[in-house]
Amino acid sequence: MANYIVWGLFIFALCFLGFFFKKRVNENRAHRQKAAMEYEAKKERYSYLRPGVLETCPREDVTAAALFHCMRKENDDFDHYFEKMNESERTVYGIYMITSSLEGRNASLHSFFLSPASQPYVPMVVDIFERVGAHEIADLMKAARRFAEIIENDEEDDEDDPEMGDYSRYNFSDFTNEFVTLVSTTNLGEKLTQYVLDHKEDFYDTDIPGEDKEGDEIDEKRISDEI
Predict the structure, then answer these.
(1) Cα–chain center distance at 213
(2) pTM strictly above 0.70
């Protein structure tokens, strides 16, 4: 009899846990769906940035707006988008390229230096962080870039290498962990937001599909009425 009671309680516990597990899974699914819908809404809203929009949108959306604008430029002309970007756009998008290289399992900062898509940003990897005022990250990236060169060229690791600075004993696992730490402790997100606002004119689009055509139709109607 005691065994039946134990098994009954065990089965009840499994059912109880299963109910709450299923509820949690459904909540997580709903949360992901909501996040995906919000992402798509912002992507559509900010793919083209009309003059003045960065001054009126929520501050927490400023960097995202600049990024969606840059992503749209890349999608429009992948082979030549980099040449068509100005310095401010390259700065923001370059930092995005670095941080996005750390997504997924076994993420490493080394993947940024190895990816063909990242190559236009490698020479400017120090400058882009200096421009936004993230000087500690700039020093880290200078050493990381040098370490990537050492690995690529199969050079001897020199502890007195001036470009390695205080990071002469780091490997890419160390560089990755330090980068993640500095991103959060040096308030990189706020620095990026302020940089975009300080250079907002560089992100505005003057040629927005549909709007010029609409303006032409209005002018034609006005001219027709005057005649």
Answers:
(1) 33
(2) yes
